[in-house]
Amino acid sequence: MKIMITGAAGFIGSQLAYDLWKKKTELVLVDNFSYGSLDNLTFPEHDFTDEVLHLDIRDREGIGSLLMAGDVDYIYHLAGIAPLPDCQTDPQEAVSVNVGGTVNILENARRYGVRKVIFASTNAMYENAEVFPTAETGFGLPSLIYPNTKYAAERFCQSYCDTYGMNVTCLRFANVYGPHIDCLRKQPPFVGYMIRELYYGRTPVFHSDGSQKRDYVYVQDLIDLALLAQEGNGFDCVNVCSNHSYSVNELYGIAQEIMGKQIGAEYASSDNYWKKYPQLYEGAYAIRPEVLEKEVTKYTLCSYGHAKEKYNWEPKISIYEGLRRSIEYEVSLFEKMGKGKE
Length: 342
Ligand SMILES: NC(=O)c1ccc[n+]([C@@H]2O[C@H](COP(=O)([O-])OP(=O)(O)OC[C@H]3O[C@@H](n4cnc5c(N)ncnc54)[C@H](O)[C@@H]3O)[C@@H](O)[C@H]2O)c1
Hints:
By secondary structure, this protein is of the alpha/beta class. It has helices spanning 11-22, 60-67, 84-89, 91-111, 145-164, 190-199, 219-228, 248-259, 270-274, 289-296, 305-311, 319-337, and strands at 2-6, 26-31, 52-54, 74-77, 116-122, 168-173, 175-177, 205-207, 213-218, 235-240, 245-247, 266-268. It starts with a strand and ends in a 5-residue tail after the last helix. Nicotinamide-adenine-dinucleotide (NAD) binds at residues 6-7, 9-13, 31-36, 56-58, 78-82, 97, 101, 120, 122, 173, 175-176, 182.
């Protein structure tokens, strides 16, 4: 079996690659390294550094040339611009990559007979949901740029299934955490951020009062479901979540316990997060404060009933064990980088 992974140098793609490599799968790995890193590609038993093709998912001929032999069975399409502020501050690029890039993957998959595409979507599209736990159906359409790019990409996935009889499953990830989570970028995901601040002995700044709760799923649980999702024809959307929500303060408490450190957090207003992106406040129409506040304090809780029914999948890793493994990895990365060289 031959499998292509786009976004292979990223947090999730790199670990999916390692999991499939251990299963002796032939791999085609693609990333343009706009966010991914070489560190992600080095595993205890294998180094993918020289195997990842530096390619943009929007490159029509480049992607086509990898598929034209007709021997790629599945594509895990994970490449995309995920950070919310990056999408909000450069919407043209976000749409170009997340929507246009996805259409390029779909079109080439169509031409060259890929058996199934498994697309990394998001539960961020439940931004305006009012029913919890949120199932795959019956949610309000999103407002922000990032979830809209994923929603639009899902629509094209369905279009290709309806029009050409292709097979696509959109996996709507909740907040994913685990080893390789980005901890170095300007505003890393919360789990990466809190571990980094604790490691360096700094006071973390949390937005709002830290009571906001989100649904977190451990990366290996996600990979287990992503592999099961090779089964199933036509178009489908499946939540990948834990149906457990944890607050910022709860997660920080567990991380402090595991790392044996007690550092009081500082609490800042929600717009403190967004003020780092002044372009959102410039121009004739500035971003509306209530949208920012809503995003920072947003509650997410999703149902995995569909995944359980269709694939008999349930998340296995507890939040404590998942955070322990995340911390172990991140600390080893910081040690490798050398203290102070962050
Ligand atoms: N991590 C989460 O909590 C989460 C939640 C919901 C959905 N997702 C989605 O899952 C996917 C993977 O997420 P991740 O956390 O591993 O993100 P990531 O940023 O670590 O990985 C994405 C990878 O895509 C690559 N990429 C970006 N634009 C590209 C382009 N034009 N061509 C080729 N490669 C490109 C980046 O370099 C990066 O390596 C993303 O599509 C993201 O939107 C992630």
